Amino acid sequence: MLDSHQHFWKVERGDYGWLTPDLGTIYRDFMPEDLTREMRRAGITRTILVQAAATQAETDFLLEIAARTDFVAGVVGWIDMEAEDFAARLSRYRQNPRFLGIRPMLQGLDDDAYILRPSVIDSLKAVADSGLAFDILTFTRHLPHVIAALKQVPNLRAVVDHISKPEIAKGVLDPWRAHIEEIAGFNSVSCKVSGMVTEAGADWALEDIRPYVDHVARCFGPDRLMFGSDWPVCTLAASYGEVANLTRTLLSSHFGPEELHRIFETNAARFYGV
Q1: Tell me: the pLDDT tens digits for 141-199?
Q2: Among the four 46, 199, 219, 266, which has the fewest Cβ within 10 Å?
């Protein structure tokens, strides 16, 4: 199985603006040796390593890890999408076969409509032309802007991270449902079934999460969903194995073994080209 979304970091690097001591157990280093046993127990054989800092220095750090770690299939990195030389930077990274795509940290930016800035739209077009992947990290409030951007760059190969972080702990489904359904109308967009336990809270129950998984299952179907652990962030609410089992249990209500195999391996392998 292929985990489409996990992170590594070293706190001393100092470029993780969101990673503060008040996050408790995840305010420490997480490196490949910390994940190996968890992967073995869950039956995961490869992962996609995703950026956690808005710096190219971290992207270089992750690519170095990927180069020496057998189970890391590739890296989704970060490039400043407003940089005048964005296309040149993207082209340079694309020469590295382990560089699979980019992810701006839209959820943490002051401007909810950042993705619609003209320079960012130009950069999105460059990503689309490159054939690389684009990870969408958002809350529900960002989705109307994402939809508007996708209308301008309809050939962008994109994936919604963490089902766009709906308010699971509060049981809020709308307007998230309508936005997700509209995004699923773009055939080039997929969705990661990931990040749900932390949005549900440490005392989550399977039935709290079911309506959200049911909805993305109906909207995206078995060919545009992919499993992601969001490890180690997920450990704030669940173990690696618990996340894998939760996802498998909820998706089994909709899909059979062959379709689940796509969701847990081949969809992500195809999407990221690994």
Answers
A1: 999 999 999 999 999 999 999 999 999 999 999 999 999 999 999 999 999 999 999 99
A2: 266
Interhelix angle for 32-42 vs 240-251, to 10°? 40
Span between the terminal Cα atoms of the chain, in Å: 13
Is residue 188 within 8 A of residue 224, CB to CB? The reply is no
The reported pTM is: 0.97
For position 142, which CATH number holds?
Answer: 3.20.20.140
Identify the helix (H) or strand (E) that includes residue 183.
helix 176-184
Tally the residues of the chain. 274
Report how far residue 83's alpha carbon sits from residue 87's, in angstroms, rounded to the nearest whole number: 9
Domain count for the chain, please give it. Answer: 1
**For residue 205, how many C-alpha atoms fall within 13 Å in the half-sphere facing its CB?**
4
Q: How far apart are CA 6 and CA 240, in angstroms?
A: 10
Question: Each residue of 257-267: b (16+ CB within 10 Å) or e?
Answer: eebbebbbbeb
Locate the DSSP E strands across 78-164: 99-102, 133-136, 158-160
Distance CA(266)–CA(247), nearest Å, equals 16
Query: What residues contact 154, with CB distance under 8 A and at least 6 apart?
Result: 186, 188
Task: Please give the structure tokens belonging to residue 231.
Answer: 């490890």
Give me the phi and psi of 160, to 5 degrees please. Answer: -80, 115
